[in-house]
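Lab manual, section 2.4: Encoding a predicted structure.

Procedure: take the sequence of the chain (131 residues), apply the prediction step described in section 2.3, and record the output as C-alpha coordinates. A sample record is shown.
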Amino acid sequence: MEVIAVIVAAICGWILGAVWYGVLSKPWMEASGIRCDENGKPEGGQSPAMFVVSFLLILIVAGMMRHVFELSAINTLGKGLISGLGIGLFFITPWIALNNMYGMRPLKLTLIDAGYAVLSCATIGLVLMLF
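Recorded output:
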Protein backbone atom coordinates (compact mmCIF):
# COMPACT_ATOMS: atom_id res chain seq x y z
CA MET A 1 0.00 0.00 0.00
CA GLU A 2 2.91 2.37 0.69
CA VAL A 3 4.08 2.13 -2.93
CA ILE A 4 0.62 3.07 -4.21
CA ALA A 5 0.49 5.99 -1.78
CA VAL A 6 3.86 7.27 -2.99
CA ILE A 7 2.86 6.95 -6.65
CA VAL A 8 -0.50 8.69 -6.14
CA ALA A 9 1.16 11.44 -4.08
CA ALA A 10 3.77 11.97 -6.79
CA ILE A 11 1.07 12.13 -9.47
CA CYS A 12 -0.78 14.78 -7.43
CA GLY A 13 2.43 16.79 -6.93
CA TRP A 14 3.25 16.54 -10.63
CA ILE A 15 -0.23 17.62 -11.72
CA LEU A 16 -0.08 20.54 -9.29
CA GLY A 17 3.18 21.56 -10.95
CA ALA A 18 1.59 21.40 -14.40
CA VAL A 19 -1.22 23.67 -13.23
CA TRP A 20 1.11 26.00 -11.24
CA TYR A 21 3.57 26.53 -14.05
CA GLY A 22 0.79 26.62 -16.64
CA VAL A 23 -0.79 29.56 -14.83
CA LEU A 24 2.56 31.23 -14.10
CA SER A 25 4.35 30.29 -17.33
CA LYS A 26 4.83 33.83 -18.65
CA PRO A 27 6.27 35.37 -15.46
CA TRP A 28 8.33 32.21 -14.84
CA MET A 29 9.84 32.24 -18.35
CA GLU A 30 10.53 35.96 -18.02
CA ALA A 31 12.23 35.53 -14.64
CA SER A 32 14.15 32.47 -15.88
CA GLY A 33 15.41 34.32 -18.93
CA ILE A 34 14.00 31.70 -21.30
CA ARG A 35 13.67 33.02 -24.81
CA CYS A 36 10.37 32.44 -26.56
CA ASP A 37 9.47 32.11 -30.21
CA GLU A 38 6.77 34.17 -31.95
CA ASN A 39 4.08 31.86 -30.48
CA GLY A 40 5.23 32.46 -26.90
CA LYS A 41 6.68 28.95 -26.59
CA PRO A 42 10.25 28.30 -25.40
CA GLU A 43 12.74 28.42 -28.28
CA GLY A 44 13.86 24.95 -29.26
CA GLY A 45 10.74 23.36 -27.81
CA GLN A 46 10.46 21.05 -24.85
CA SER A 47 11.43 17.41 -24.84
CA PRO A 48 8.90 14.88 -23.51
CA ALA A 49 11.82 13.45 -21.53
CA MET A 50 11.73 16.57 -19.33
CA PHE A 51 8.23 15.68 -18.18
CA VAL A 52 9.14 12.05 -17.50
CA VAL A 53 12.23 13.02 -15.53
CA SER A 54 10.31 15.66 -13.58
CA PHE A 55 7.79 13.00 -12.53
CA LEU A 56 10.59 10.62 -11.49
CA LEU A 57 12.18 13.36 -9.38
CA ILE A 58 8.88 14.11 -7.66
CA LEU A 59 8.45 10.36 -7.11
CA ILE A 60 11.82 10.35 -5.30
CA VAL A 61 10.69 13.26 -3.10
CA ALA A 62 7.37 11.56 -2.31
CA GLY A 63 9.14 8.30 -1.50
CA MET A 64 11.57 9.98 0.86
CA MET A 65 8.77 11.94 2.50
CA ARG A 66 6.91 8.66 3.09
CA HIS A 67 10.03 7.14 4.63
CA VAL A 68 10.62 10.13 6.92
CA PHE A 69 6.94 10.22 7.89
CA GLU A 70 7.06 6.55 8.85
CA LEU A 71 10.18 7.03 10.98
CA SER A 72 8.72 10.14 12.61
CA ALA A 73 5.28 8.69 13.38
CA ILE A 74 3.57 11.21 11.13
CA ASN A 75 0.29 9.40 10.67
CA THR A 76 -2.61 11.85 10.45
CA LEU A 77 -3.85 14.18 7.74
CA GLY A 78 -2.96 17.23 9.83
CA LYS A 79 0.55 16.00 10.56
CA GLY A 80 1.07 15.09 6.91
CA LEU A 81 -0.07 18.50 5.74
CA ILE A 82 1.99 20.46 8.28
CA SER A 83 5.06 18.27 7.75
CA GLY A 84 4.78 18.66 3.98
CA LEU A 85 4.45 22.43 4.35
CA GLY A 86 7.49 22.43 6.61
CA ILE A 87 9.58 20.42 4.16
CA GLY A 88 8.66 22.74 1.31
CA LEU A 89 9.04 25.93 3.32
CA PHE A 90 12.07 25.15 5.47
CA PHE A 91 14.09 22.64 3.40
CA ILE A 92 13.38 23.22 -0.28
CA THR A 93 12.65 26.96 -0.32
CA PRO A 94 15.95 27.99 1.30
CA TRP A 95 17.84 25.76 -1.14
CA ILE A 96 16.06 27.30 -4.13
CA ALA A 97 16.72 30.79 -2.73
CA LEU A 98 20.40 29.98 -2.18
CA ASN A 99 20.87 28.70 -5.73
CA ASN A 100 18.98 31.62 -7.25
CA MET A 101 20.83 34.17 -5.11
CA TYR A 102 24.25 32.96 -6.24
CA GLY A 103 22.98 32.68 -9.81
CA MET A 104 21.83 36.31 -9.52
CA ARG A 105 18.32 35.27 -10.56
CA PRO A 106 15.30 37.50 -9.88
CA LEU A 107 13.37 37.19 -6.63
CA LYS A 108 10.26 36.54 -8.73
CA LEU A 109 11.79 33.24 -9.91
CA THR A 110 12.51 32.19 -6.33
CA LEU A 111 8.96 33.02 -5.24
CA ILE A 112 7.38 31.09 -8.12
CA ASP A 113 9.57 28.01 -7.70
CA ALA A 114 9.40 28.05 -3.90
CA GLY A 115 5.64 28.51 -3.99
CA TYR A 116 5.34 25.34 -6.04
CA ALA A 117 7.69 23.45 -3.71
CA VAL A 118 5.67 24.43 -0.64
CA LEU A 119 2.28 23.63 -2.16
CA SER A 120 3.48 20.41 -3.75
CA CYS A 121 5.12 19.09 -0.59
CA ALA A 122 2.00 19.96 1.40
CA THR A 123 -0.12 18.11 -1.17
CA ILE A 124 2.21 15.11 -1.16
CA GLY A 125 2.15 15.04 2.64
CA LEU A 126 -1.63 15.15 2.69
CA VAL A 127 -2.05 12.47 0.02
CA LEU A 128 0.44 10.16 1.74
CA MET A 129 -1.71 10.26 4.86
CA LEU A 130 -4.87 9.33 2.94
CA PHE A 131 -3.51 5.79 2.55
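Check your result against the sample. The two ends are 7 Å apart (CA to CA).
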